[in-house]
Design goal:
The complex is a heterodimer of chains A (354) and B (286). Chain A contains 9 helices and 20 strands. Chain A has 354 residues and is α+β, with helices and mostly antiparallel strands. Chain A has 2 domains: 241 residues, P-loop containing nucleotide triphosphate hydrolases (Rossmann fold, 3-Layer(aba) Sandwich); 104 residues, OB fold (Dihydrolipoamide Acetyltransferase, E2P), CATH 2.40.50.100. In chain A, β9 and β10 form a beta hairpin. Chain B has 2 domains: 31 residues; 229 residues, MetI-like (MetI-like fold), CATH 1.10.3720.10. Classes of the chains: A alpha+beta (354), B mainly alpha (286).
Chain lengths: 354, 286
């Protein structure tokens, strides 16, 4: 990467402090606080209506909160307009200017500057060229957005957002409108561009796989609140709430009781060290099941065994019709094959009071 | 071979038989000829039945020239006003949420639902000698009703919805994300409008302007009420046609009517050209 593409400013720290925002009577953000480290790639993950896009737009200066603060490197920008924040924003449907060529789109931010701040024509052209090469669209400058594929439009939007050396890059569902193959390759692309420019980047997604695979850290939102912030391993291995346990990662959910550090739901028992006694729910990931010895554990009806690669996946139905997935190492195949029912036990589980 | 009859059957299922097509087409053409084409032809035949000379003379008459001037002046004042208003109203309705939005849209549509005569009467009621502001206006020697300002006001009222109605669905469909993108890249409000919004609405706007202009030049009812029919002063072309006709000056009446027709036809040609070159503006108006 050429040095000119690198952000001239140092990566920015973003602090969000108790942001409250509502649309009419419907609260969108309910006191959200979040620290974004300089240069990190953070995902805002949550179901639709969780407030993640509102939070992103608040950081961009496209929405203004009712209370709370947004700080860029300690400086209060809560009520600064989008144009004063030096943010690069990639919109969900890209919002490319249809009547301008790709090159004009990318140059827009530089060309609308006041005359005394505007770079010379040749410099703008050079910068556009660099950016288009960064997103691997070097030959496409003269095309119009309508002549590009979805993935190419996404890259143009990215180049356009990077044109002003933004202190923060914000992306709203950046891969939402693309098909699976393009999505995968663009994901790697975004990671590469982030690493090349070092710009602090925040993206919104409802796709947990996308968030866990791409981001350094993931902030999980639900009903206008942040449920947990952590690195991908942390949020999937140590969910902080029942919502996170259910939303991130696969798994079956059981309702039951905790007594003396053990969760019970019918025949099923799971260790729940430290959980308070009383009604509880347990989330069990496929790999947290094991084959039980003798008459231990609980019985499930085998629906299907899917095996490819090193993992065998068992689709089964437990008592009461609850469906669950369990994963076993390939070697367990011998014990599983040809049996109409099988006994499982739970090695560990994520248990939360109801 | 077996595929062919099947595809023929599919053709038949979506197409009417020949005789039905022919019958419908004939009925439509007959109707159009009778109701639209024949009258237009009749206008020109009547205007020219004593030759080109008298027709041109009728148009060159001072009263006729004054009517033509007044009509052009009215259109020249009305159209820019409605462009500015229409863009502002469409912008407000399409890009912002505010209480009373539905009411504003209804208000914009009002001129479509109110008879033009009523529109004219409203202005007489408000600004006329016996009206609310009449005495005050008289004291200050300001003439609105039975003068050019009244004619322009009435025309503005009647042509109010054309530009706004054309732009509202267009701007709603386009949303605000392009404007937001421009603003997030540091563009000022004005630059955002000129570089992003205006290019996106230009064809719809032009279409609205043409419709607005056609109606502004042709409006009769509302203008008739507020004009006072003062020859050489407050007569527009449509009003002048009526006066000449009532005077049994058929050549003159039809000559001026023919000129109005020509203006209308020119507008239609422009509109059609616009549709040919910009297919996406077709069929949007109410």
């Amino acid at each position: 990467m050429s040095a000119a593409v690198m952000s001239e400013t140092h990566p920015m720290t973003i602090s969000i402090r108790s942001i409250v925002k509502s649309y009419g009577r419907y609260p969108a953000l309910n006191g959200v606080s979040l620290e974004v480290q300089p240069g990190e790639l953070l995902a805002l993950l949550g179901p639709s209506g969780s407030g993640k896009t509102t939070l992103l737009r608040t950081i961009a200066g496209l929405e203004f909160p009712e209370s709370g603060q947004v700080l860029f490197d300690g400086q209060d920008v809560t009520f600064a307009g989008a144009s004063d924040r030096r943010v690069g924003f990639v919109f969900q449907q890209y919002a490319l200017f249809k009547h301008m060529t790709v090159a004009k789109n990318v140059a827009f931010g530089l060309e609308v500057r006041k005359r005394q701040d505007r770079p010379a024509k040749a410099d703008i052209a050079k910068r556009v060229d660099e950016l288009l090469r960064l997103v691997e669209l070097g030959e496409m400058g003269r095309r119009f957005p309508a002549q590009l594929s979805g993935g190419q439009r996404q890259r143009v939007a990215l180049a356009r957002a990077l044109a002003l050396d933004p202190s923060v890059l914000l992306l709203d569902e950046p891969f939402g409108a693309l098909d699976a193959a393009v999505r995968k390759s663009l994901r790697r692309e975004l990671r590469r561009i982030h690493d090349a420019t070092g710009v602090t980047t925040i993206f919104v997604t409802h796709d947990q796989e996308e968030a866990l695979e791409l981001a350094d850290r993931v902030a999980i939102l639900n009903l206008g609140r942040i449920e947990q912030v952590g690195d991908p391993l942390e949020v999937s291995e140590h969910p902080a709430s029942a919502f996170v346990a259910g939303f991130v990662g696969d798994g079956a959910r059981f309702e039951g009781q905790v007594q003396g550090g053990v969760f019970r739901s019918g025949e099923l028992a799971a260790p729940a060290p430290g959980a308070p006694d009383g009604a509880a729910q347990a989330f069990v990931r496929p790999y947290q099941f094991a084959l039980a010895q003798g008459s231990d554990g609980f019985e499930v009806k085998v629906d299907r065994i899917v095996g490819h690669g090193p993992i065998l996946r068992l689709e089964a139905t437990a008592a009461g019709g609850r469906r669950l997935d369990a994963a076993f190492p390939r070697e367990a195949g011998g014990e599983l094959s040809g049996r109409p029912s099988i006994r499982l036990q739970v090695r560990s589980a994520h248990v939360f009071p109801v | 071979m077996s595929g062919r009859p099947a595809s023929r059957r599919a053709d038949l299922a979506t197409e009417d038989p020949f005789w039905a097509k022919a019958a419908i087409l004939t009925a439509v053409l007959l109707f159009l000829t009778l109701v639209l084409l024949l009258p237009v032809v009749a206008v020109f035949v009547q205007a020219l039945h004593k030759g080109v000379g008298p027709a041109v003379a009728a148009m060159a008459e001072p009263d006729a020239l004054s009517a033509i001037r007044l009509t052009l002046l009215t259109a020249a004042l009305t159209v820019p006003f409605n462009v500015v208003f229409g863009v502002c109203a469409a912008w407000a309705v399409a890009k912002f949420d505010f209480p009373g939005k539905a009411f504003l849209i209804t208000l914009i549509d009002l001129p479509f639902s109110v008879s033009p005569v009523v529109a004219g009467l409203i202005y007489v009621l408000v600004f006329g000698a016996q009206g609310w502001f009449g005495p005050w206006l008289l004291d200050h020697n300001i003439h609105i009703v039975f003068a050019v300002p009244g004619i322009v006001l009435a025309t503005i009222f009647v042509t109010f919805p054309f530009v706004a109605r054309e732009l509202i669905p267009l701007m709603q469909e386009q949303g605000v994300s392009e404007e937001e993108a421009a603003v997030s890249m540091g563009a000022s409000g004005l630059k955002t409008f000129w570089k992003v919004t205006a290019p996106n609405i230009r064809w719809g706007l032009l279409y609205g302007v043409l419709l607005c202009n056609a109606r502004a030049m042709g409006e009769f009812g509302a203008v008739s009420v507020v004009s006072g029919h003062i020859r050489g002063l407050t007569n527009t072309m449509p009003l002048h046609v009526e006066i000449l006709y009532n005077d049994y000056d058929f050549v003159g009446a039809f000559a001026v009517a023919g000129l109005l027709c020509l203006l209308a036809l020119a507008t239609l040609v422009l509109k059609t050209l616009l549709e040919v070159f910009q297919p996406d503006v077709r069929g949007r108006h109410v």
